[in-house]
Amino acid sequence: MTRIILSGCSGVMGKTITDLVKDDDEAHIVAGIDLTDDGTKEYPIFSAIGQCTVEADVLIDFSTPKILDEILEYCEKNKLPAVLCATGYDEKQLAAIEAAAEKSAILRSANMSLGINTLLRLLQDAVKLFAPEGYDVEIVEKHHNQKLDAPSGTAIALADSINEAMDGQYEYVYDRSQRRQKRDKKELGISSVRGGTIVGQHDVIFAGADEVITFSHTAYSKAVFGKGAVAAAKFLNGKESGRFEMSDVIAAANQ
User: What does the alpha-carbon distance between residue 120 and residue 226 come to, in Å, rounded to a whole number?
Assistant: First the structure.
């Protein structure tokens, strides 16, 4: 049994994970962290992570980058692994996460979907085949009209995975409206769409002469992210330190 502290428990993803874990015999939420408490949860809710006195095996954070320092401090003090699912960390915070992983087990992912994280690996094989043949690479991401950041963290993760496979050759281009020039072969275009209630869609396009190959991932509900987060929590249970990715969770599941 994996005992979970859920940070951001009153948010959309917090409610999603709460519902998922109710039917999971291998996981149990023992406490929540949030500024609000709607009174519907079966576990105690603390307004700040430092106030939590409940013993647990793993922390899942779906809150905000604003409380990252508090979370990392709590996890180090209590030797608690953490699954960090918030997006929008700045460079300083990313460095703090890497440093914290030397003392605590940390898994951070821009997207907790098992499908997206499998796609990250597939794209590395694809770009090695298509790029030398002159194919252009474009990423189009679509999300609901309430999403604050653009492009999405997942779109950047997809681009980074492709660029890593090509030894950093690509330049990310987010806006061509001010450009009056032909597309450079080393461009990797990233476009964002915001509208309605789109949960999340990412298309990676390899456009060559006379053919287009598209890798597409569509999330129809936030449950796919919740399932990934819970799987990650189970994976981290018992680990003392180290920096992990969702790819590690997938690899462990396939062993």
Answer: 19
Say if residues 123 and 160 touch (Cβ distance below 8 Å): no
- Counting every residue, how long is the chain? 255
- E strands in the chain: 2-7, 27-33, 45-46, 58-61, 82-84, 105-108, 136-143, 171-173, 187-194, 200-208, 211-219, 242-244
Element (H, E) at 120: helix 114-130
Query: Does the active-site annotation cover 142?
Result: no
Annotated catalytic residue within 103, 147, 227, 239? 147
Question: What is the reported pTM?
Answer: 0.81
CB atoms within 10 A of CB 252: 12
| Distance in angstroms (rounded) separating the CA atoms of residues 132 and 147 | 36
Considering only CA atoms, which of 215, 227, 207 is closest in space to residue 109? 227
Q: Which of 41, 143, 217, 222 is catalytic?
A: 143
Q: Are 49 and 77 in contact (CB under 8 A)?
A: no
Q: Is 144 a catalytic residue?
A: no
Side chain identity, residue 186: K
For 168-208, write each residue's pLDDT tens digit.
Answer: 999 999 988 888 899 999 999 999 999 999 999 999 999 99
Determine how many CB atoms are found less than 10 A away from the CB of residue 253.
11
**Residue 181 structure tokens:** 């020039």
